[in-house]
Design goal:
Layout: H1 2-15, E1 22-25, E2 34-38, E3 44-49, E4 58-64, E5 71-73, E6 78-82, E7 91-95, E8 101-108, E9 113-120, E10 128-133, E11 138-144
Antiparallel strand pairs: 1-11, 2-10, 3-9, 4-8, 4-11, 5-10, 6-7, 6-9
Length: 149
């Protein structure tokens, strides 16, 4: 009887995890943490080096665990704009960075380098957003099948 219970738990654990064909790629950086500070007068940028021969899609995601320190005041909606690829300058998504959330910004065909600008949607407003990218929190590129079953 206990064997059946253990086998059931193992099967459930295997089906509720991320697929083995998924890679969570952190931003390209010389070191961590990466500090982002987005204000009306200052945008920020993020880029990702995608490993060769990666199977797509590439999905840009913001992940912040509950209680993670994200500073956000005023008109804090952030636009994410492509800096390269097939449509440089195109708005690819908008979001508010919040602790306790995972936000899919957009999905793309993978390229060797993928770069984006983060800027306040209302540059004439009084908003500000700042956070640090550390392991497990911040912006990531999910490469491949990252669906949770």
């Amino acid at each position: 009887m206990q064997f059946a219970t253990a086998a059931t738990l193992i099967a459930l654990a295997a089906t509720s995890s991320v697929s083995a064909t998924c890679l969570e790629q952190a931003p390209s950086a010389l070191g961590f943490p990466i500090n982002y500070d987005i204000t009306p007068s200052r945008s920020d940028a993020v880029s990702f080096q995608i490993p060769p021969n990666s199977a797509g899609p590439c999905q840009l995601v913001a992940k912040f665990p509950a209680g993670y320190p994200v500073f956000s005041v005023g008109d804090d909606l952030v636009n994410v704009t492509a800096l390269d690829g097939p449509a440089p300058g195109a708005l690819v998504g908008s979001l508010r960075f919040r602790a306790g959330t995972t936000t899919v910004i957009n999905s793309f065909g993978c390229r060797d380098v993928m770069a984006y600008e983060l800027a306040l949607a209302n540059p004439d407003g009084n908003g500000e957003v700042s956070f640090s990218e550390i392991q497990g929190a911040g912006l990531f590129m999910e490469v491949g099948d990252c669906t949770i079953f």
